[in-house]
Amino acid sequence: MLSPVAKKELEKAWGVKVFDRYTIVLHIFRCNAQTKEAKLQIALAELPLLRTNVRNEVAQLDQQRGGSRYIMGSGETFMEIQLRLLKEKEVKIQKALRKLKKNRSLLRKQRKKYEFPIISVMGYTNCGKTTLIKALTGDAKLQPRDQLFATLDITAHAGYLPSRLTVLYVDTIGFLSQLPHNLVESFSATLEDVACSDLILHVRDVSHPETSLQKKTVLSVLKNLNIPNHLLESIIEVHNKVDLVDRYQPTEQNAIVTSALLGHGLKELKEEIEERVLKGTGKKIMTIKINLSGPQLSWLYKEAVVQEVDVAPEDNTAKVRVIISDSALWKCKRLFPQSSYLS
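Structure (tokenized):
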């Protein structure tokens, strides 16, 4: 943040209002905040700036011989009152955020209960994360915007992989180089969802002249968020907006080249996601021979992902190819011990 003296000198020299980086970023955040949680997080991040302003005002009052006087016999100076009010505001905001954090934790537990693989989509601000999620899910409600920090809230969107496995794509806040520490701290609770995901997609705008620097920024923030090592090591790097680069060729190995806007590379990306998800979650692709006279087929449709059903009418059985989790497989064997479980 600019010191008051520096700000005043610059405004005097240039003849215009001067705002520091922190104030500008806060303003952009405030304009894009839509949910209660985002607004609370911004209010929390704004408190250091307000405290600085109070101290600066008091310094000016001191010069006028009034800043340290007690207010109406309260035993508190002007600065003490203002700082106390800001502290009370901070306590209220943190209490409200803790409540929202608890609610979000319950939502995470529900997702885990239904065993939907969770894929966090991350990247530098305005790299095309929301556009990519819209392309992967077909969610018409998503309205990507070509602007900084258009997404300030964690949102989840269901999509299907080639095997018909349902996954949840989590849209996250975009990053920025030299993002003020207080802003990172304020939004760290929101980004806790990333640590609970099964896979991370790192989306890069390869048409940007500083795409390599942006990559370093994102990876640096991820490491500071205490993301588990297995997630960091399994990140899928998505080189997006290749339609804006003539004859683009990736320099990084295993990068998936896409144009979310035009739909290029989505098939390859989904296949890579599926391979990583199956490996990371321990889900199995297997064939189960069942008796069609019982309830097992409907149970499998409910508890697993049914890919194919090969019916043998002569003995009223079927070979069912499924994607199934370890816990669901254990339940299936316990409920239907007469079935044959084939690899």
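Residues 146-152 have pLDDT under 50 and may be disordered. The chain has three domains: 4-99, 115-280, 283-342.
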